């Protein structure tokens, strides 16, 4: 695939504008929290993008309003009487199919929650697992999924310590759904927050974009494409520890799952009020994933990852951060993909290869339903 | 309903035998952990009884084997570096219908997890909530359920601090499923465990049996019965605190949800290796619940509760425990329902009104699917 072809694949998201035009239009592009416009739940509400944020704000934040939910993170930081900080996170997994190249719902269920805790700066320790299973689901398949979870838990150095099992009639859970929650402790002194992000900070990504989403789409067999893409599903807690040891001033971490790097960068921009300028040429995508994305008409910047970390690091620690990530098996392809700027306000822009700049909004709609 | 009618309703479970015969047959009745015999998941695997225990043992315990899971509780007790003990529990809720007299899936989702933590001796503090929602589910209904959760959380003095939302296609979640997890701290010195149970200890129940299960069955409208039974769904953490203050030697607590008092007493018998002898005349059941159970051919001893506590207390603290429970709005009907004996081994028996004794096994099958 040529660079031109790649470029076309990526330009579907927003108009191409020149940087000075962007600056003039800051007010126009200033992000507001999206609003809920629908009367019924749609697939887009589960996609992790704009509609998901709107649903969470309008329904759940409205009902449960508290400081932790208002931080709009994938987990809560909870103060224990001893002065320790506990991280607590949950995710449901409804991936279809249950098994795909590189993993299964079992791996995802562990990795998803481990990774949410890890990017909060926590050391994931204990996992709960709740199963909603269809009547008629083969016990052997359930054993295999439990074995995948056990394998993933071992690799991530966490324990599945409690659980629940519910059974629903055939057809009412598409096989099975798994919900995990996890807790871990945040070592004293670690503080990862949008408040610490400064103009000039660098944005790092630990590897290629979109492998998980593309792998699951391909595994469904609907696309009529030969070839295999492997999901990147993996526990990033080891990678995060390596990064935070090498670059202790690291400001902010996130795992770009549903909604991809594009949506996570928008969350960063909204949380900080600053601009995130990404360099298109440096955004890592494998040729296979790029090919699938072109066929689907999706920018890989919005496609889910399940074993990647997006990090905002201090300029002076960039080299150390990059070196530490590249030394880790999960960060070999780590790159600087952009930087933080105060020349844009709460906006994500991509500098294209030919000098233009385009705005990257949050993911709208759900081009890839049920990929996690 | 006459006493004779009641008696008949309760005698479906086991053969009527004389106490001396029971003693002779200890070996025959000695409980073993049930074994998984099926190739596919059945509704019984979700009923909280014998099949559920077999599935958990054969699949999940086998895969994740660790000390916490082997305790076979509804939650884990986790040691923090500070010396504090954290309680951690999870439950999925798939109740049908979503709303029933006395509550909704929203109330259940909070109460279920709060109560699991409370009977571990913990003070529930933080809740996670993960939603699997069908495409097309009305936003207004979702708001109402979130409002129920918020109301329940406020009443239980817990906060919903983190969550997740997934959307599946219409029909693939029967409206919606909610999975909550919860964490709380166990005050130092509290130790509730089967190891502390002694012959002569009293078994207390905080109120009538089976209200929740009967309410949900009636709400489905399949039975053609007029009249309304209200679910007892409620957070028992306040009741447990009152009990543990009045009776600090309390040995063991459980909330008799799926599988009811009968199943929970079997868990107690298996955990302690001792006998649990219940007094039929003292088992509290409302006439309405008894009527529904007769129609369904189910012993109310197996019907789910969602706001009750079963407690094993020291003989000398029985009066104090009973008084404290009865002073609490959720424990007004608290009674002593039986006692612990070493004349039986890992067995639950009921002394009938006319001097016989029958064995109460764990719930077998699933007469009331999807009641939580």
TrEMBL record, chains A, B:
Family matches, as InterPro entries: HypE, PurM-like_C_dom, PurM-like_C_sf, PurM-like_N, PurM-like_N_sf
Pfam families: AIRS (PF00586), AIRS_C (PF02769)
CDD domains xref list: HypE
PurM-like N-terminal domain sequence ranges: 74-186
GO terms for biological process, alphabetical: protein maturation
Domain PurM-like C-terminal: 198-348
NCBIfam families for the chain: hypE (TIGR02124)
Family designation: Belongs to the HypE family.
Annotated protein name in UniProt: Hydrogenase expression/formation protein HypE
Naturally occurring in which organism (per UniProt): Thermobispora bispora (strain ATCC 19993 / DSM 43833 / CBS 139.67 / JCM 10125 / KCTC 9307 / NBRC 14880 / R51)
Lineage: Bacteria, Bacillati, Actinomycetota, Actinomycetes, Streptosporangiales
């Amino acid at each position: 695939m040529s660079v031109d072809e790649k470029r076309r694949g990526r330009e579907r998201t927003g108009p191409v504008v020149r940087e000075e035009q962007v600056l003039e239009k800051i007010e126009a592009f200033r992000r507001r929290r999206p609003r809920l416009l629908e009367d019924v739940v749609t697939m887009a509400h589960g996609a992790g993008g704009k509609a998901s944020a709107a649903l969470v704000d309008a329904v759940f934040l409205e009902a449960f309003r508290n400081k932790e939910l208002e931080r709009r993170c994938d987990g809560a930081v909870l103060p224990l009487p001893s002065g320790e900080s506990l991280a607590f996170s949950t995710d449901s997994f409804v991936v279809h199919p249950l098994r795909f190249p590189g993993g299964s719902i079992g791996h995802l269920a562990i990795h998803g929650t481990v990774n949410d805790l890890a990017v909060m700066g926590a050391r994931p320790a204990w996992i709960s697992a709740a199963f909603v299973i269809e009547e008629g689901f083969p016990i052997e398949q359930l054993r295999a999924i439990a074995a995948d979870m056990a394998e993933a838990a071992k690799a991530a150095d966490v324990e599945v310590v409690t659980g629940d099992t519910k059974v629903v009639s055939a057809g009412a859970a598409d096989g099975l759904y798994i919900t995990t929650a996890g807790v871990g402790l945040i070592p004293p002194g670690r503080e990862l927050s949008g408040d610490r992000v400064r103009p000039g900070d660098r944005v790092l990504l630990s590897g290629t974009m979109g492998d998980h989403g593309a792998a699951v789409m391909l595994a469904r067999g609907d696309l009529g494409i030969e070839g295999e893409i492997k999901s990147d599903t993996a526990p990033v807690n080891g990678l995060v520890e390596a990064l935070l040891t090498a670059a202790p001033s690291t400001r902010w971490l996130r795992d770009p799952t549903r909604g991809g790097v594009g949506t996570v960068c928008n969350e960063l921009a909204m949380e900080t009020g600053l601009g995130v300028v990404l360099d298109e040429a440096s955004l890592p995508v494998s040729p296979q994933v790029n090919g699938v994305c072109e066929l689907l008409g999706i920018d890989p910047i919005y496609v889910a990852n399940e074993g990647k970390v997006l990090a905002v690091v201090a300029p002076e620690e960039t080299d150390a951060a990059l070196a530490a990530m590249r030394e880790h098996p999960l960060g070999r392809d780590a790159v600087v993909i952009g930087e933080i700027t105060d020349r844009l306000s709460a906006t994500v822009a991509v500098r294209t290869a030919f000098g233009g700049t385009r705005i990257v909004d949050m993911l709208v709609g759900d081009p890839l339903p049920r990929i996690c």
